[in-house]
Design goal:
14 strands, eight-stranded antiparallel β-sheet, Pdz3 Domain, 8 helices, 2 domains
Length: about 230
Protein backbone atom coordinates (compact mmCIF):
# COMPACT_ATOMS: atom_id res chain seq x y z
CA UNK A 1 0.00 0.00 0.00
CA UNK A 2 1.39 3.45 -0.96
CA UNK A 3 2.03 6.14 1.72
CA UNK A 4 -0.91 8.26 0.56
CA UNK A 5 -3.21 5.24 0.70
CA UNK A 6 -2.03 4.41 4.22
CA UNK A 7 -2.67 8.00 5.28
CA UNK A 8 -6.17 7.89 3.75
CA UNK A 9 -6.85 4.60 5.57
CA UNK A 10 -5.87 6.16 8.89
CA UNK A 11 -8.07 9.21 8.27
CA UNK A 12 -11.13 7.14 7.32
CA UNK A 13 -10.76 4.84 10.31
CA UNK A 14 -10.29 7.83 12.61
CA UNK A 15 -13.47 9.46 11.29
CA UNK A 16 -15.34 6.19 11.72
CA UNK A 17 -14.19 5.90 15.33
CA UNK A 18 -15.23 9.49 16.03
CA UNK A 19 -18.71 8.65 14.76
CA UNK A 20 -18.85 5.81 17.28
CA UNK A 21 -17.94 8.06 20.21
CA UNK A 22 -21.56 8.27 21.32
CA UNK A 23 -21.76 4.50 21.91
CA UNK A 24 -18.32 4.00 23.44
CA UNK A 25 -17.90 2.17 26.73
CA UNK A 26 -17.80 3.99 30.05
CA UNK A 27 -16.53 3.07 33.47
CA UNK A 28 -18.84 2.47 36.40
CA UNK A 29 -16.87 5.05 38.36
CA UNK A 30 -19.40 5.69 41.08
CA UNK A 31 -18.71 5.34 44.77
CA UNK A 32 -19.58 2.44 45.55
CA UNK A 33 -17.48 0.70 42.91
CA UNK A 34 -17.22 -2.74 41.28
CA UNK A 35 -14.59 -2.21 38.56
CA UNK A 36 -16.33 -2.53 35.18
CA UNK A 37 -16.16 -0.65 31.89
CA UNK A 38 -19.45 -1.20 30.08
CA UNK A 39 -21.47 -0.16 27.06
CA UNK A 40 -24.60 -1.13 25.13
CA UNK A 41 -24.60 -4.65 23.72
CA UNK A 42 -23.03 -4.34 20.22
CA UNK A 43 -25.48 -5.00 17.40
CA UNK A 44 -23.34 -7.79 15.94
CA UNK A 45 -23.31 -9.61 19.31
CA UNK A 46 -27.03 -9.03 19.77
CA UNK A 47 -27.82 -10.50 16.36
CA UNK A 48 -25.41 -13.41 16.63
CA UNK A 49 -26.84 -14.69 19.91
CA UNK A 50 -30.38 -13.33 19.57
CA UNK A 51 -30.12 -11.12 22.65
CA UNK A 52 -33.35 -9.07 22.87
CA UNK A 53 -33.04 -5.38 22.01
CA UNK A 54 -32.61 -3.08 25.01
CA UNK A 55 -31.60 -6.01 27.18
CA UNK A 56 -28.35 -6.14 29.10
CA UNK A 57 -25.03 -4.29 28.98
CA UNK A 58 -21.74 -5.43 27.46
CA UNK A 59 -18.55 -5.63 29.56
CA UNK A 60 -15.53 -4.32 27.68
CA UNK A 61 -12.98 -4.21 30.51
CA UNK A 62 -12.66 -5.59 34.05
CA UNK A 63 -10.47 -3.90 36.66
CA UNK A 64 -7.49 -5.91 37.91
CA UNK A 65 -8.11 -6.76 41.57
CA UNK A 66 -11.62 -5.27 41.46
CA UNK A 67 -14.70 -6.82 43.07
CA UNK A 68 -15.85 -7.79 39.58
CA UNK A 69 -12.66 -9.70 38.80
CA UNK A 70 -12.66 -11.42 42.20
CA UNK A 71 -16.21 -12.63 41.51
CA UNK A 72 -15.19 -14.21 38.18
CA UNK A 73 -16.77 -11.71 35.77
CA UNK A 74 -14.93 -11.53 32.42
CA UNK A 75 -14.75 -8.97 29.63
CA UNK A 76 -17.17 -10.01 26.90
CA UNK A 77 -19.85 -11.04 29.40
CA UNK A 78 -23.34 -9.54 29.06
CA UNK A 79 -24.96 -8.49 32.34
CA UNK A 80 -28.71 -8.99 32.15
CA UNK A 81 -30.01 -8.79 35.74
CA UNK A 82 -29.10 -7.42 39.18
CA UNK A 83 -30.85 -9.07 42.10
CA UNK A 84 -33.77 -10.14 39.87
CA UNK A 85 -34.14 -6.68 38.30
CA UNK A 86 -33.61 -6.58 34.52
CA UNK A 87 -30.74 -4.46 33.22
CA UNK A 88 -31.60 -2.54 30.06
CA UNK A 89 -28.81 0.05 29.61
CA UNK A 90 -25.48 1.17 31.08
CA UNK A 91 -26.94 4.25 32.76
CA UNK A 92 -29.42 2.09 34.66
CA UNK A 93 -26.72 -0.27 35.96
CA UNK A 94 -24.55 2.66 37.05
CA UNK A 95 -27.51 4.00 39.00
CA UNK A 96 -28.11 0.63 40.62
CA UNK A 97 -24.49 0.41 41.81
CA UNK A 98 -24.51 4.03 43.01
CA UNK A 99 -27.53 3.30 45.21
CA UNK A 100 -25.94 0.21 46.78
CA UNK A 101 -24.34 0.53 50.21
CA UNK A 102 -20.61 -0.35 50.33
CA UNK A 103 -19.83 -3.92 51.45
CA UNK A 104 -23.27 -5.08 50.30
CA UNK A 105 -23.25 -8.38 48.41
CA UNK A 106 -25.29 -8.37 45.19
CA UNK A 107 -26.07 -11.00 42.56
CA UNK A 108 -25.43 -10.28 38.88
CA UNK A 109 -26.88 -12.60 36.24
CA UNK A 110 -25.01 -12.76 32.97
CA UNK A 111 -24.57 -14.41 29.61
CA UNK A 112 -21.12 -15.74 28.84
CA UNK A 113 -20.44 -16.09 25.15
CA UNK A 114 -18.08 -18.23 23.16
CA UNK A 115 -18.15 -19.30 19.52
CA UNK A 116 -20.03 -22.50 20.35
CA UNK A 117 -22.61 -21.71 23.02
CA UNK A 118 -24.18 -19.20 25.42
CA UNK A 119 -23.92 -19.97 29.13
CA UNK A 120 -26.30 -18.47 31.71
CA UNK A 121 -24.50 -17.72 34.98
CA UNK A 122 -24.94 -15.84 38.25
CA UNK A 123 -22.13 -14.16 40.19
CA UNK A 124 -22.16 -12.97 43.79
CA UNK A 125 -20.16 -9.76 44.13
CA UNK A 126 -19.35 -7.57 47.13
CA UNK A 127 -19.56 -3.88 46.30
CA UNK A 128 -16.52 -1.86 47.34
CA UNK A 129 -16.55 1.57 48.94
CA UNK A 130 -14.40 2.73 46.01
CA UNK A 131 -11.82 5.51 45.79
CA UNK A 132 -10.01 7.62 43.24
CA UNK A 133 -7.07 5.22 43.46
CA UNK A 134 -9.34 2.24 42.75
CA UNK A 135 -10.74 3.90 39.64
CA UNK A 136 -7.20 4.29 38.21
CA UNK A 137 -6.24 0.61 38.41
CA UNK A 138 -5.28 -1.38 35.34
CA UNK A 139 -7.98 -3.33 33.58
CA UNK A 140 -8.16 -6.22 31.18
CA UNK A 141 -7.82 -6.18 28.23
CA UNK A 142 -7.36 -2.40 28.32
CA UNK A 143 -8.97 -1.38 25.03
CA UNK A 144 -12.36 -1.02 23.36
CA UNK A 145 -12.86 -3.03 20.13
CA UNK A 146 -15.46 -2.26 17.46
CA UNK A 147 -16.50 -4.07 14.29
CA UNK A 148 -15.57 -2.35 11.04
CA UNK A 149 -18.50 -2.42 8.56
CA UNK A 150 -17.97 -4.08 5.19
CA UNK A 151 -18.57 -0.76 3.41
CA UNK A 152 -15.57 0.79 5.19
CA UNK A 153 -13.42 -2.27 4.41
CA UNK A 154 -14.33 -1.87 0.74
CA UNK A 155 -13.48 1.84 0.76
CA UNK A 156 -10.09 1.09 2.28
CA UNK A 157 -9.51 -1.83 -0.11
CA UNK A 158 -8.80 -4.10 2.83
CA UNK A 159 -9.36 -7.80 2.28
CA UNK A 160 -12.16 -8.82 4.64
CA UNK A 161 -10.34 -12.08 5.32
CA UNK A 162 -7.65 -10.12 7.13
CA UNK A 163 -10.00 -8.85 9.83
CA UNK A 164 -12.87 -6.52 10.59
CA UNK A 165 -12.42 -5.92 14.34
CA UNK A 166 -10.54 -2.71 15.07
CA UNK A 167 -9.30 -0.97 18.19
CA UNK A 168 -11.67 1.91 18.92
CA UNK A 169 -9.72 3.26 21.88
CA UNK A 170 -6.87 2.27 24.19
CA UNK A 171 -6.86 3.00 27.91
CA UNK A 172 -4.11 5.30 29.12
CA UNK A 173 -2.68 2.65 31.47
CA UNK A 174 -2.50 -1.12 31.39
CA UNK A 175 -1.43 -4.06 29.25
CA UNK A 176 -2.74 -2.83 25.90
CA UNK A 177 -0.95 0.52 25.86
CA UNK A 178 2.22 -1.05 27.31
CA UNK A 179 2.20 -3.63 24.48
CA UNK A 180 2.01 -0.85 21.89
CA UNK A 181 -1.60 -1.28 20.76
CA UNK A 182 -2.91 1.78 18.88
CA UNK A 183 -6.34 3.17 18.14
CA UNK A 184 -7.21 2.13 14.59
CA UNK A 185 -5.27 -1.15 14.67
CA UNK A 186 -7.10 -3.97 12.88
CA UNK A 187 -6.98 -7.17 14.94
CA UNK A 188 -6.16 -10.12 12.72
CA UNK A 189 -5.59 -12.93 15.23
CA UNK A 190 -5.13 -13.78 18.90
CA UNK A 191 -2.79 -16.65 19.79
CA UNK A 192 -2.73 -17.61 16.12
CA UNK A 193 -6.53 -17.86 15.90
CA UNK A 194 -8.26 -15.70 13.31
CA UNK A 195 -10.61 -13.10 14.79
CA UNK A 196 -13.73 -12.23 12.79
CA UNK A 197 -16.08 -10.89 15.50
CA UNK A 198 -16.17 -9.66 19.09
CA UNK A 199 -17.24 -13.03 20.48
CA UNK A 200 -14.14 -14.73 19.08
CA UNK A 201 -11.92 -11.88 20.27
CA UNK A 202 -13.05 -12.09 23.90
CA UNK A 203 -13.14 -15.89 23.88
CA UNK A 204 -9.46 -15.99 22.90
CA UNK A 205 -8.45 -13.13 25.21
CA UNK A 206 -10.07 -14.74 28.24
CA UNK A 207 -8.14 -18.00 28.07
CA UNK A 208 -5.82 -18.44 31.03
CA UNK A 209 -2.35 -17.78 29.59
CA UNK A 210 -0.30 -15.04 31.33
CA UNK A 211 0.66 -13.43 28.01
CA UNK A 212 -1.58 -13.11 24.95
CA UNK A 213 -0.04 -12.73 21.49
CA UNK A 214 -2.02 -10.52 19.12
CA UNK A 215 -1.37 -9.88 15.43
CA UNK A 216 -2.57 -6.50 14.18
CA UNK A 217 -2.59 -4.65 10.88
CA UNK A 218 -1.54 -0.98 11.01
CA UNK A 219 -1.18 1.36 8.02
CA UNK A 220 0.12 -1.32 5.69
CA UNK A 221 2.23 -3.28 8.16
CA UNK A 222 1.79 -6.36 10.36
CA UNK A 223 2.75 -6.25 14.03
CA UNK A 224 2.91 -8.92 16.73
CA UNK A 225 2.09 -7.59 20.20
CA UNK A 226 2.16 -9.38 23.57
CA UNK A 227 -0.40 -8.32 26.17
CA UNK A 228 0.15 -9.29 29.78
CA UNK A 229 -2.97 -10.81 31.30
CA UNK A 230 -2.60 -9.59 34.86
CA UNK A 231 -4.44 -11.28 37.68
CA UNK A 232 -5.60 -10.04 41.06
CA UNK A 233 -3.08 -10.52 43.83
Amino acid sequence: MKPNQRKLQFIIISLFLCALAGVSAEKISTNPWIGLEIGPVPVTVMEHFQVPEHRGVFIYNVGIGSPAQHSGILPGDILIMKDRELITEPKQLKGMIAETDPDTRITLSLLRLDHERVSHMSMSIQVSAGSREAEKIDNWPGFIPVVLPRTILEQLRIDESFGNVIVGSVNTAGSAVEAGLHTGDIIHSVEGRKVSNLVELYTFLNRGQPYVEMQVYRQGGNFILRLERRQAE
